[in-house]
Amino acid sequence: MPTRREFVKTAASATAGLFVQPRPARREVFIGGRRVKVVDIHGHLSVPEVRDIVKGTDLATSGGDQADGGGLVLGPERVRALDEQGIDVQVLSVNAFWYSADRELARQVVRVENEALSAWCAAHSDRFVGLATVSLQFPDLAAEQLEEGIKKLGLRGAAIGGSVEGEELSAPRFDPFWAKAQELGALVFMHPRNAPGTTQNPRLRGRGGLGNTIGNPLETTVFLSHLIFDGTLDRFPRLRICAAHAGGYLPSYLGRSEAACTRDRQNCASMKRKFSEYFRDQILIDSMVFREEGLRHLVAEMGAGQIVYGTDMPYAWPAGVDFILNAQFLSDAEKAAMLGGTLVKLLRIASASSAGV
């Protein structure tokens, strides 16, 4: 199995390639005449070394596919993309595909991925920070992996899927992981993975890529709804979760969830607060809503401080910084917070002034 030293060497080799080809001018973002640091919460990667670990197992297809490239394998082109788009720091995470693995295989996969991610971020410490991957199907192991990722590998939080093989993460057996995330003050970034009933619903077959277009936001909606209605966020009141794809459909339809409480109080018997209040502090979302009116509505429902910039790189979506810079309803302070200020604080990233940005 490759060691972390070997990963660092590989990352350093990739860095060397940056100086072989001319790099485009790095876009700098200014708000009100002041340079601001742009932080992207939603950057994907894959680790090719995982392919050897899962070879011959039930994970071989999904793990091998993720390691085949398509912009997911990090290299000089990722840094060039950040320069072109005006992104100063990208937060990297791996989409979970190992939730069906046994304990030892899951441990091996996560170890290699977290060490590779740590090595890349160490070699490019001014441009990238990483979120630990965890074996969520074994909550005690996931808690250990999160602690090791933060304390030993320098990672800044955790990346998880929205469910584990059809099981909701609000189930009490996942509490050891949530407790550890709260203890460490770790931001948890939730990104949908293939899941029954949402992304894998048979009605989403056909044109339009509906498993992604509809299924991914639906998985996020179900995930967040369970955490609130089942009382997970009340059991862990200092927990901070950032949900991909603008939080799915839920932030745009909070009134219906609140109405469920008035129609039948048992629906909300596990909650200590009004449904929408969790979106004012414990739940953050990324900015991938694509239309200015959609963003305006989300700001009205949640507050600009709960929305952070996200691109879904390397996948092509209309999610550039100009989407936020050109939003006339936002103040300069709100734009700066959304583009990076909030994540600088939550992920302990060097501020614009201290980093010379």
Structure, described:
The chain is α/β, with parallel strands linked by helices and 357 residues long. The chain is 40% helix and 11% strand. A 6-stranded parallel beta sheet has the order 6-7-10-11-12-13. Strands 3-4-5 form a 3-stranded parallel beta sheet. α1 (4-16) packs parallel to α5 (103-123) and α6 runs parallel beside α7. It is globular. The model is unreliable at 12-20 (pLDDT under 50).
List the defining traits of the structure above.
13 strands, 40% helix, three-stranded parallel β-sheet, six-stranded parallel β-sheet, TIM Barrel, single chain, alpha/beta, 357 residues
Question: What's a quick, concise take on this entry?
Answer:
The protein is an alpha/beta fold. The chain has helices at residues 4-16, 50-54, 60-66, 76-85, 103-123, 139-151, 175-184, 210-213, 215-229, 232-235, 254-263, 292-302, 322-325, 332-346, and strands spanning 30-31, 34-35, 39-44, 89-93, 128-130, 132-133, 157-160, 163-164, 167-168, 187-190, 241-243, 283-286, 307-308.
Q: Please, what is the CATH homologous superfamily?
A: Metal-dependent hydrolases
Percent of residues in β-strands: 5-15%
Radius of gyration: 20 Å
Mean of the pLDDT scores?
91
How far apart the termini lie comes to: 38 Å
So what's the CATH class? Alpha Beta
- The sequence of SSEs as H and E is HEEEHHHEHEEHEEEHEHHHEHEHEHH
Based on helices, strands and strand pairing, what is the structural class?
A: alpha/beta
* Approximate helicity band: 25-40%
Order of strands across the biggest sheet?
6-7-10-11-12-13
> How many separate domains?
1
Biggest sheet details: 6 strands, parallel
Total helical segments: 14
Q: Give the tally of β-strands.
A: 13
